[in-house]
Amino acid sequence: MAHVLVTGGAGFFGGILKRHLLRRRYDVTSVDRVPDTSWHPHLTKITGDLRDPWLLNSTFRRTQYDAVFHCAAMLAHGMNLDEDDLWTSNVNATRMVAEACRLHGVPKLIFTSTNCLWASNPGHAIREDESPAPAEVYGQSKLAAEYALCEYGHELEVVILRCPTIIDRGRLGLLAILFEFIQDGKTVWVVGDGSNRYQFIYAEDLVRACMAALRPGVSDIFHVGSDNVQSLRAIYKAVIAEAGSTSKVRSLPKEPTLAAMRMAHHFGISPLGPYHYRMIAEDFLFDTTRIRERMGWRPTLTNEEMLVQAYRYYASCREEIHQRKNVSAHSKAAPMGVIRLLKWVS
After folding, report:
1. What is the pLDDT of residues 58-82, one digit of tens each?
2. End-to-end CA distance of the chain
3. Residue 231, C-beta contacts closer than 8 angstroms, at least 6 positions apart
4. C-alpha to C-alpha distance for 151 and 34, rounded to whole angstroms
């Protein structure tokens, strides 16, 4: 039985990956800052901070790991962001995990990165060899983490999987705001005409990319994402139809709306940051040719299909979701802040 470590194992994607590994008969150690409530005879749970040298050393000394899946990250969601905490969680902790892998002879480290490495639409699907240009602290921290990992490329195999927004049953965060609007029959607003296309990734497809990355000899950067990406307007309409909702999709003028979003973010009254401006208003796609050709990987669900799954989950347990406290950011509803005013007038 192979032994693997999953950082962020109590989180949304880390939890999905962890459960997949356990089904495949891996011996899994999960490390997370929030408690992991799951149980399995082959699961070891550790609650703690990866920036704690004692915790990290004891975790690596107790087991000889065959691979580490580094999924833990602090997000830039919310209205009270501590940028120093985010930076050290995403950069310093990543470097410490890589150093622990080197010291303890772990042969493989697989890192989930992000499309937030880019701040604007370059007019085409982005390849792995294009230079990143993040504009906000989360994207900057993930890029710095990538650079830190590349320093270890000659001592262990490092696979970086850059992914867009991960969607599946249980994905909440800012999506919970969209789903609440739809379930309550409120107007769903798009910025501009809503014709922009924004790529998602189905969590199970990302799991398959992680498993493919375990192959010996693989050490590279890969982009993953969905196929046949439709406009945000079309995707929202698909969820509204699934919900049987009376919601309508209507447009807001692009430039004034983006200016208002920037101002609300500046004053700390909106959960939407610079990354979300791009998702809401621009096209953004990854070119997934490299992982297809090298690993034989293919996505399975479209944006509409995965978002409908996520909505069904929300609709089935909305009340319980809004009571959640000590869970990861993607596993609870994001605070609306000033967006609640938009709901009242919708």
Report:
1. 999 999 999 999 999 998 766 577 8
2. 54
3. 194, 195, 196, 197
4. 29
| pLDDT interval class at 162 (50, 70, 90) | very high
Of 77-86, 128-137, 245-254, the poorest mean pLDDT is in 77-86
Q: pLDDT at position 329, please?
A: 82
Better-predicted residue by pLDDT, 282 or 9: 9
120 touches 278 (CB < 8 A): yes
**Conformation bin of residue 15: beta by default, left when phi > 0, alpha when psi is -120 to 50:** alpha
Q: Where along the chain do its domains lie?
A: 3-167+199-223, 175-198+228-283+302-345
Is the pLDDT at 135 greater than 90? The verdict is no
> Is residue 223's pLDDT more than 70?
yes
Q: What are phi and psi of 6, to 5 degrees?
A: -120, 115
Return the structure tokens found at 88. 């050290």
Give domain 175-198+228-283+302-345's CATH architecture: Alpha-Beta Complex (3.90)
Q: Evaluate whether 100 touches 70 at the Cβ level (below 8 Å).
A: no
Q: What is the CA radius of gyration of the chain?
A: 20
Place of tokens 């699907």: 125
Instruction: Answer positive or negative: Cα dihedral of 111, 114, 118, 121.
Output: positive
Structure tokens given for 174? 């800012």
Q: Domain 3-167+199-223, CATH 2.60.40.3080 — does that match?
A: no
Neighbours of 191 (CB within 10 A): 21
pTM of the complete model: 0.94
Average pLDDT over residues 316-330: 88
Closest CA relative to residue 108, chosen from 231, 40, 6: 6
Average pLDDT over residues 303-325: 94
Q: Tell me if domain 3-167+199-223 and domain 175-198+228-283+302-345 are identical in fold.
A: no
Neighbouring C-beta atoms of residue 156, cutoff 10 Å = 18
Q: Does residue 225 contact residue 283 with C-beta atoms inside 8 Å?
A: no
Contact present, 158 and 150 (Cβ < 8 Å): yes
